[in-house]
Structure formats: structure tokens, C-alpha cells
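Sharing a chain and its predicted structure for anyone who wants a worked example. Both blocks are below, sequence first, C-alpha cells second.
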Amino acid sequence: MKKILPLLLLTGLSASCFAQLNHNPNKFLGNITTSNQVRSDFLQYWDQLTPENETKWGSIEGTRGKFNWYSADKEYNYCKEHNIPFKFHTLVWGSQYPSWMDKLSKEEQLEEITIWFDTLASRYPDLEYIDVVNEAIAGHAPAPFKDALGGDGVTGYDWIVKSFQMARERWPNAVLIYNDYNTFKWQTDKFIDLIQKIKAAEAPIDAAGCQSHDLNDMSGSEFKTVLEKIHNAIDLPIYITEYDISKENDEEQLKRYKEQFPIMWEADYVAGVTLWGYIYGKTWSQAQYSGLIKNGVERPALEWLREYMLTDAAVDAKAPTNANNYAILYASPAKIEVGSTSAIKAKAKSDSCKITEMQLYLNDTLLTTTDTSAFSYQWKSTIASDNLFTMKVFGSVSNTTTLLFEKNCTITAYEPEIIEEPIEDTTNTGSTAIIDEIADDINGAYMVYSIMGIYQGTYEINNGDTSVLNGKMPEGVYIIRKKENGKARRIVVY
């Protein structure tokens, strides 16, 4: 029989010990700003940024002719500094646009729209992704000033076609996206119809953005069917642009992520996924339970997402346009106990030359070399420390060996202090670890996690009686976290 005895009391797991989730070079896993700012932990999770509100026209030019670039500049420059994609959200939308537009004539409105586009292009000439038109389906938020852009016209969407043409003139290399909601439920056919018609009118549209706020109660099979229907009908790459699952119950949120996320991520026509917020209590009002970090503690859906993103299916998932030059290096897991082993995985590709050698270093010590373009190396920790690994990738360019890439990752090895709490021996056997007398202040529903944050299940523990956990888990260190308040205690099973 496995026994459980208490270790030290914790307030929760720190998210800062984990590395960025996405290790796939072909597509991004992004998120948005939080309360109009980029959080300090953003890069520990995400590799693409969409400003939630800061690049909407009304946020930048609330007063006619006066542009406030403060937040937009900070976020644009943040992405440049950290080499992650920045998406401009959004150029034309019938919400959060400047209210002074309503007082202008059509001619004046077109002039202001042109100034808005030109000013943006001057400031951000190299935008990679742009939501050109947002939520234009009837009943959503089509621009009230659409007549200035040509109105409905013969296509029913002439003003959208014009918006895309104006965007392409200013950003010839950007991915131009039409973005909308209720695309998987309720208005799928209207979404398809709009895109088909603007494509037929030769709008320079590059991709469709499915916001994905409508998936709370959709099964994985239903979601896959509709996603494939949209792709087959529009024949364009798809971006999942605003994914959230607003469930107060952790298990219900986890269930939807497990059912839906692999489908969207592994679809070779889905070019990237952006989640719409990740801090509980800081997400938009209609998805108040969608946050993935609550009171500083990762919810099970985020813990599962980390594990899934390390699978071969996630790392190797294809996109409509796959990267031809990349190098990735990551450790799984990235935080281990002293004496445990972590797998260091690497992959590289170059379309300009053949990769001739890959080297892996721990600090300055060479661990291994290979002449292949991928490898996996098992590393066992011996002392508690942060361990920096460096991969160097070489190729032959004009008969000269050249360093193509250099990547780093870190493995943290720790040795938790086990504090045994002696318990009075009521059986006179000399035992100091009686399973049924562990910490009698433990009462209620507790979620059990491995030390790496992998969810094991939820159990009811009354008066410290942890016998319900007997036989449920292999030997090791675990965390039981009270569902009611997140308060946690480390335990050891042996």
C-alpha cells in the first residue's frame, strides 16, 4: 500500500518556472494584452501578440487629427524586440471607431479613412498580420461609414473589397485577414458566403479569422466537422483568432480544451491560434471564466496545454506555409528533481544549405554531436541548479562550414526539502507516518497534481484522511490543492 505524508505548506505553484508553450516553427500560439499591457510573464507562455484594444481606431484617434501611439508603439516594439509576430487589430470595424466619424459626410469619411490607413502605413510599414475588416456580418458590427467605401454595391460587400484593396496597396507583404465571430455556430453559412463573395470580387484576402468565442458547449467532433466545412468552402488558410472557453468549473474547461485544441492545432490549414486572454478576472466581460491562470495558479486546462504542446503531434503540426529556416531546442520536462532525467529535443531546417552538424553544450562542455537535422538527448541531473544548454547548428555554404543557428534552453533541477511530521504512535509499532492521521486541518475537495503540474484527479479528503489516494498514483512528490481557495500542501507518495 502506498503511503502519503505531509511536506511543506505552499501557497501555489509559480508559473515562472515554465518555458514558452509552443515549440512548433510552423505556426504560432498567441495571446492578447492584459488590461492594455503586456504582462511580464507573456513570453513564458505565448509567441504572438494581438493588442486587445490598443490598436483599434478609436483608441488611437479618439480626437480627430490627434493620434495617441503610446500603447500601440510599446506593443509593436515589444514584438520586434522579442522577434514574435504582432497582429494589428483592426483597421475597419463598426465598433470602437472614433465617434466624430458619425458627424462627417461620406466624402469626409473616406478622406479620414484614407488618412487613417496612410498614417498607420507610415508608422508601421512592415506589419505582418492585419485584421482588415472585423465583424461585418449583418447583425454584428458592420462599419456605419461603409457607404464611404462603396457601400454594399453589386456584391453586397463592396465596401469590404475596397478596404482590402486599400490595405494591400499599403502593406503588400502583410497577411490580410477578415475576422468574425459565431463562425462555428449560428452563422457559419453567412461567414462562408461573405468570404466567397469578396474572393469572387478579387478582394486581396489572404486568410479567414475565426474568433471562436462560440465553442463553450461544442464537442470535438462537432467542431471538427464545422472547421472542415469552412475550410473546404473558402479554400483559404484559417486563423483561430480569439479562442476562449469560459467555464467556471476547471474540469469542464479542461474537457473542451482536450477535445478542441488538438483539432485546430493539427489542421494543416490552420496557420496559427491566438487565445483571447489568460488571466482569470481580466478577460472580456462575456467570457469572465475563460482565464487560464487564477490567483497566480495555473488551471488544469493550461497545465494540459503545456503537456500537449510537447507531443510530436503538436511540434510537427503543419501549417499552410511552413517555415523553411528554423531551429528549435526544448527540454521535456524543463523542471526536474535532482536525480531525474529530462529529454532535450532539437530540430533544424535550412532551405539555403545542407545542415552538416548539430552540437549540444551544457555551459561550455560539449555533450553530443550529430550530422542529422534532429536529435533527442537524455540528460540526468546530479545537483540542484539552473542548467543552460546551447545548440549550435552548422551548414556548408560555398564549401565553407558556417554557423547557421544558435539556440538555448534551461533545465532547472531542484531538491525539495522533505519535512516529516512525526505523529504519535497509537499502535505502539514505532511508526511515524500513519496514513490516516496526516494534517487533520485538510478538509474538502482537493485537486491532485504531480510536481510538474500534471493533473491527477480531484478527491474529497475529510479530517486529514488521505486513504482515498491509496493506490491512485505512482511513487513521487505531489501537490494537493484545495479547490475552494487554491491553498496547497506538498505530499510524498512512497
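Comments welcome. The CA atoms of residues 414 and 483 lie 26 Å apart.
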